[in-house]
Amino acid sequence: VQLVESGGGMVQPGGSLRLSCVASGFTLSYTDMSWVRQAPGKGPEWVSIITAGDTIYYGDSVKGRFTVSRDNGKNTVYLQMNSLKTEDTGIYYCTRQGVYWGQGTQVTVSS
Predict the structure, then answer these.
(1) Are 73 and 13 in contact (CB under 8 A)?
(2) pLDDT tens for residues 2-33?
(3) What is 39-51 written as a DSSP string?
């Protein structure tokens, strides 16, 4: 099982980024996939989940700004992040049910 995130970078407040999480070793459409982030000096914060049944939830801090989606043909989960704020800065991880984790991708929102 392997998860590889990409798409992070530096962006100004109000900007957008799209993160990708490519899965290998399993079919991610058959399982729940989450995005979790960790800001500098803080604990992990759950961001979003897309379940095997296509139910989607978001954390209150990102609701209305972030959108999670899945491309089954590419075995990839995405996190579209719009209207980014400085407090969105952190390392973003995708995880399969909290058991398998990617290496993370850094998102920095700064003017």
Answers:
(1) no
(2) 999 999 999 999 999 999 999 999 998 899 99
(3) -TTS-EEEEEEE-
